[in-house]
């Protein structure tokens, strides 16, 4: 091979190698990020973070093939750490998420989940990472508040910070995340109301806000999220009526509102909608259960227990296409329990602690 051709090949190889190497600034930022965290014992993930090329063989790090910049940090305890666990020795990572992570300006994904011991705040500077599509910090001990200007992350599609100790309110700017499809903030200490503007998230398909201290009414604007499939607002301090418009949502399949302070009547549209998993238990709902069931009613689970419903059990429930589980306990219902359909498969617990129900499966005859 001629000398010039060999030199050209060596030059091209060097260019390709450089293109696939992370810049020193990204490597330094990753090492600073690492320094703020502690693994439970030696021989873990960070032992692979050696050498000058953080794009190669650094566990949990991925780079953009074109720019060579760090694009993803993916540290899931359940998938990465099991490789290093010793028999009968459970460990977890501790420390905090360093603001140095914000120097990785090409990041599109930050996944740091299920480490149990990572604490501290969500670095506010994270909202400057304009390419972020995924933030998942589930299963840690993160405190503080969500950044108030989180709406700056216009590319974000997935936001999860469940199972932490986050306080404060849901930032109003969250409504600017118009491409968001998944929102999970359950099991924190978030307070205040649900922003009225939440309905602007037209692409949201799943919203989980349960297990917080959220107050105020359920915004009717939620019904404008026409792609919403799952909505869980359970175990909060919500009050006021259930918006009737929730029963007109085209693809809503799961609605969980249990353990709140909701009052008023059940919107009849909820029982004739496409919702198949409906939990309204442990509230202060009252009035009659709407007699609006029919052949299109299909419930894998229908829970109405621990409320103040009165009157009789609607006979139309027996006409439902399917009800896998029904709970009407701890209300003020009276009269005979209908026969046929779902009522032939239920046990006494579904009707316990009402004022004057009678008939099978209860021991009290009518």
UniProtKB/TrEMBL annotation:
Residues 1-18 form the signal peptide. SUPFAM superfamilies: L domain-like. Residues 24-64 form the Leucine-rich repeat-containing N-terminal plant-type domain. GO terms for cellular component: membrane. One of its GO terms (biological process) is defense response. It is found in: Membrane; Secreted, Cell wall. InterPro entries: Leu-rich_rpt, LRR_dom_sf, LRR_N_plant-typ, PGIP. It holds the Pfam family LRR_8. Its main location: membrane. Gene3D superfamilies: Ribonuclease Inhibitor (3.80.10.10). Keywords: Cell wall, Disulfide bond, Leucine-rich repeat, Membrane, Plant defense, Repeat, Secreted, Signal. It is a peripheral membrane protein. Belongs to the polygalacturonase-inhibiting protein family. PANTHER family: OS06G0587000 PROTEIN (PTHR48059:SF30), POLYGALACTURONASE INHIBITOR 1 (PTHR48059). This is DNA damage-repair/toleration protein DRT100-like.
């Amino acid at each position: 091979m001629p000398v010039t051709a060999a030199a050209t090949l060596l030059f091209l190889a060097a260019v390709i190698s450089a293109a696939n190497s992370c810049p020193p600034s990204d490597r330094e930022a990753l090492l600073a990020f690492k320094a703020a965290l502690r693994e439970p014992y030696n021989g873990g993930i960070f032992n692979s973070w050696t050498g000058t090329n953080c794009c190669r063989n650094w566990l949990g790090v991925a780079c953009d093939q074109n720019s060579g910049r760090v694009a993803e940090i993916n540290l899931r305890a359940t998938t990465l750490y099991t490789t290093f666990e010793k028999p009968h020795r459970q460990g977890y990572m501790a420390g905090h998420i360093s603001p140095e992570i914000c120097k990785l300006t090409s990041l599109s994904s930050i996944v740091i989940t299920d480490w149990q011991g990572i604490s501290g705040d969500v670095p506010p500077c994270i909202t400057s990472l304009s390419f972020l599509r995924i933030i998942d910090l589930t299963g840690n001990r993160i405190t503080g508040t969500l950044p108030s200007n989180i709406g700056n992350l216009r590319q974000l599609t997935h936001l999860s910070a469940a199972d932490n100790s986050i306080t404060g309110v849901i930032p109003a700017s969250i409504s600017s995340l118009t491409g968001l499809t998944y929102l999970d903030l359950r099991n924190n200490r978030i307070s205040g109301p649900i922003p009225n503007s939440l309905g602007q998230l037209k692409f949201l398909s799943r919203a989980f806000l349960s297990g917080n201290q959220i107050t105020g009414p359920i915004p009717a604007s939620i019904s404008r999220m026409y792609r919403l499939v799952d909505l869980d607002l359970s175990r909060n301090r919500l009050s006021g009526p259930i918006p009737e418009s929730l029963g007109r949502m085209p693809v809503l399949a799961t609605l969980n509102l249990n353990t709140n302070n909701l009052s008023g009547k059940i919107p009849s549209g909820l029982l004739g909608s496409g919702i198949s998993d409906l939990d309204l238990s442990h509230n202060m709902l009252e009035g009659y259960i709407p007699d609006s069931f029919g052949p299109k009613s299909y419930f894998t689970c229908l829970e109405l227990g621990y409320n103040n419903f009165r009157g009789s059990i609607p006979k139309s429930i027996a006409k439902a296409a399917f009800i896998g589980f029904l709970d009407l306990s701890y209300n003020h219902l009276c009269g005979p329990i209908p026969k046929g359909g779902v009522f032939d498969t239920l046990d006494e617990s579904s009707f316990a602690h009402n004022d004057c129900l009678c008939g099978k499966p209860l021991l009290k005859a009518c």
